Backbone:
């Protein structure tokens, strides 16, 4: 399991400042879709009882609908949990030393990458859309020096605050590095 | 005419696939999830929901009449 206070390869004195996931709106949409899908067979059965009641009275209908409904609801719950895991395991961790980007893509693909704070060159926050504006969530992009790839925090809460925090931490880390005494001293 | 009970084979095959998916999903949550009670609770709630659906499926299947058959090709008279 991932221990926030004991991240892998952590430096002495390193503290976690931000632990981010996508905004809860994503989970809300997933729950809404799942509930709608779960209600669909009930609605279909209700309509069939009025439109074609003979279909429901057929001898094999009980058995066929038992198997169909079982497969259908098992599929729904499996799909829901799979998508929820995709949301839950996508995390962005900002510490006093680095930024860790962990993304789960499907069942068997997981990408984890790090960016050390002194190499952060630029950070931008993007909020697009009415819902994003009202609920204050959006994307944050972190650009490092000399790398084509950049980190993309997707649909995180308070993106502007995240952006400012990262830039502040990067600046503090640069100042700390400048004032750090040299690790080796050549004697006379 | 094919017996309806053949659908049970389909159901069992599908259920095995769901159990396999569940195993991998729970493994991912335990291995990579945040070390908090919330992670464990999410897994427990999911397993309870899955067990409930499986129990309800077993009840429906037990109630159904498996002696019925499905006619694939309808009877057509050879002579008018």
Residues:
């Amino acid at each position: 399991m991932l221990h926030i206070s004991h991240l892998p390869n952590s430096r002495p004195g390193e503290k976690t400042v931000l632990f981010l996931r996508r905004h809860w709106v994503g989970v809300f949409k997933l729950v809404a879709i799942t509930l709608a899908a779960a209600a669909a067979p009930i609605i279909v059965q209700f309509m069939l009882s009025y439109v074609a009641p003979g279909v429901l009275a057929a001898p094999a209908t009980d058995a066929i609908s038992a198997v169909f409904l079982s497969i259908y609801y098992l599929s729904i719950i499996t799909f829901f949990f799979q998508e929820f895991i995709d949301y839950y395991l996508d995390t962005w961790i900002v510490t006093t030393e680095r930024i860790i980007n962990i993304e789960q893509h499907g069942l068997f693909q997981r990408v984890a990458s790090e960016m050390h704070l002194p190499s952060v060159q630029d950070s931008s926050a993007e909020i697009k859309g009415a819902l994003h504006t009202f609920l204050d969530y959006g994307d944050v992009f972190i650009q490092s020096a000399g790398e084509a790839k950049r980190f993309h925090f997707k649909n995180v809460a308070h993106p502007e605050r995240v952006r400012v925090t990262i830039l502040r931490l990067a600046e503090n880390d640069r100042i700390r590095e400048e004032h750090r005494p040299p690790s080796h001293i050549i004697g006379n | 005419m094919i017996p309806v009970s053949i659908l049970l084979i389909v159901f069992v095959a599908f259920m095995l696939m769901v159990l396999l998916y569940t195993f991998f999903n729970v493994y991912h949550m335990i291995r990579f999830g945040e070390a908090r009670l919330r992670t464990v609770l999410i897994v427990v709630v999911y397993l309870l929901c899955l067990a409930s659906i499986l129990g309800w499926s077993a009840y429906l299947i037990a109630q159904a009449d498996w002696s019925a058959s499905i006619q694939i090709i309808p009877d057509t008279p050879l002579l008018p």
